[in-house]
Specification:
hydrolase activity, acting on carbon-nitrogen (but not peptide) bonds; about 550 residues; Amidohydrolase 3 domain-containing protein; Urease, subunit C, domain 1; about 30% helix; 17 helices; YtcJ-like; Metal_Hydrolase; about 20% strand
Length: about 550
């Protein structure tokens, strides 16, 4: 064997192979792992040009696979939107101050666009009048952290041609209050899309490609070496291909084409493009539709009504909403499945998950495939009947573990503490043999995967909310959801997700031994170095 390009020595390498074995060292040649063993064994392979990384006894893990996120939207928002998450904005007054300051600084004709508002942690929703005053006559749109709801001011309604007597769009709602039924400013689902589309109308391939440089930096700083872009639109697909041609990828990108963009999936079908098309840097994973909504925003579909205090303008009783007709979604999923495209459908509440499974079962009935790996995205409220249905059909629970830490308090408040027993129930999923990779859904939640892994192991949020400890898993099981299972859910298990001979040399060196430390300590894990293809791409 030729001398390796790189040796990692003196580590605690969690290979995440089938036996979850450990090694002290590994060797890399041409971007692939070629050997594992003791430090002495690997050192003996050293040649004149071999680089050596001394892990100094640190925990080494396979590169994190985030199997569902929105890097394209995050890229644009990092460049042109303003972040108003709770770490930046702690009260309604601070939010309005941020809106006022940003709008005053923008050039004429530009919208004031803000993202990741969590009203529960930031003093509640401002009124329409308050947003109007803060915007100073400029259109303003504030996207809630879940990405399903937003706040628009009067100038934004006018800019989008939505008058005071406008009817609600199909599968959406303009919230109204009072005897006159005046807008409150809160808009839900497809109503929010009207304003999102207006803000994003000017996005270009160049905007996405430039923003992706910062997104890659952030991912790599958290040990994330592979991301699947959920609901990926055609403009992002073009931007990503440009980056591939220009050699600008420092991490790996999977495309989950958006069923929300009319024509995109039919064009893939017509062109004969199937899942797996591409290479190890940029690959088509599958296609996705989003019929279900947001639990923290009180729109996700459940069989039982929401609890807690309704937001002004919210329907009462409220069991959430669905964004497609059943037969229409089944027809779309069936066509894609028959064409060789892996099907993903979002389901958050138990009614939403059932709705997704209805469509996927119809597709399988029309075209049976044993190893289909159809995924229910987010798949939060997995009651025993839902779990049995996932198991029976061989479906993947693509679990929104990122929601646990950042949105857990809202889930408990909106669904009740008793519902936490079946929310992201990874211990039950493992016992049933239902594969459940984890994901962040960034920029809905933060990029950092370790806060979610801590929640999986402790079943408590950083704020102390109880998510029911009966569903806690081991740190190794949490890590598996973000490595081996993440790769498997994308049909990439032969290339990534574990550190074994022949697989890609993507790995991270951590300051915390997440497999042996107190599970609560996982939350504060820092990544000391990240390697992709055997090349250092981040150093703390």
């Amino acid at each position: 064997m030729p001398a390796p390009d790189l040796l990692l020595l003196n580590g605690r390498v969690a290979t995440m192979d089938a036996a979850e074995s450990e090694a002290e060292a590994l060797a890399v040649f041409r971007g692939r792992v070629v050997a594992l063993g003791t430090t002495a064994e690997m050192r003996a392979l050293k040649g004149p040009g071999t680089r050596v990384l001394d892990a100094e006894g640190r925990r080494v893990v396979p590169g994190i696979v985030d199997s569902h996120a929105h890097p394209d939207a995050y890229a644009v928002r990092l460049r042109t939107w303003t972040l108003v998450s709770p770490d930046r904005v702690r009260s309604r007054e601070e939010l309005l101050r941020a809106v006022r300051g940003r709008c005053a600084a923008l050039p004429p004709g530009r919208w004031g666009a803000f993202y990741r508002l969590n009203e529960r942690a930031s003093g509640g929703y401002p009124t329409l009048a308050e947003l109007d005053a803060a915007g100073g006559g400029r259109p303003v749109f504030v996207l809630r952290t879940d990405g399903h709801l937003g706040l628009a001011n009067s100038a934004a309604f006018a800019a989008c041609g939505v008058g005071p007597d406008a009817a609600d769009p199909p599968f959406g709602r303009f919230d109204r209050a009072g005897a006159a039924g005046a807008f409150t400013g809160l808009v839900r689902e497809t109503a929010a899309h009207i304003f999102l589309n207006a803000v994003h109308a000017a996005d270009t391939e160049g905007d996405i490609a430039e923003g992706m440089e910062q997104v890659q930096d952030e991912c790599l700083a958290h040990g994330v070496t592979s991301v699947a872009n959920s609901l990926c639109p055609s403009v992002a697909i073009r931007a990503f291909q440009r980056m591939r041609r220009e050699g600008r990828w420092r991490m790996r990108m999977g495309v989950i084409a958006s069923g929300r963009e009319e024509g995109l999936v039919p064009h893939l079908i017509g062109a004969g493009v199937q899942s797996g098309f591409g290479d190890e840097w940029l690959r088509l994973v599958g296609v996705e539709w989003c019929p279900d909504c947001s639990t923290s925003g009180r729109t996700a579909a459940y069989w039982e009504p929401y609890r807690g205090t309704p937001v002004p303008g919210e329907p009462v009783p409220n069991t959430g909403m669905l964004l497609y007709e059943r037969d229409d979604l089944a027809e779309r999923a069936t066509a894609a499945h028959k064409a060789g495209l892996q099907v993903m459908i979002e389901g958050v509440g138990d009614r939403g998950i059932d709705f997704a499974l209805d469509a996927m079962e119809a597709a399988l009935a029309a075209h049976p495939v044993a190893d289909h790996r159809m995924r229910v995205e987010h798949c939060c409220h997995v009651t025993p009947p839902v779990l049995a249905r996932l198991k029976r059909g061989g479906f993947v629970d693509s679990s929104a573990t990122g929601f646990m830490d950042e949105l857990g308090e809202a889930y408990a408040a909106n669904r009740g503490q008793d519902a936490m027993r079946h929310m992201w129930p990874h211990r039950s999923l493992i016992a049933a043999g239902v594969p459940a990779p984890g994901h962040s859904d960034f920029a809905v939640c933060r990029v950092n995967p370790f806060t979610a892994m801590a929640c999986m192991a402790t079943r408590r949020t950083a704020g102390g909310a109880d998510l029911d400890a009966s569903e806690a898993v081991t740190p190794a099981q949490a890590l598996r959801a973000y490595t081996r299972l993440g790769a498997w859910a994308q049909r990439e298990e032969e290339e990534k997700g574990s550190l074994e001979p022949g697989k890609l040399a993507d790995f991270a060196v951590l300051d915390t031994d997440i497999l042996r430390a107190d599970p609560e300590a996982i939350r504060g894990t820092r990544v000391l170095a990240t390697y992709v293809d055997g090349v250092e791409r981040h150093r703390a």
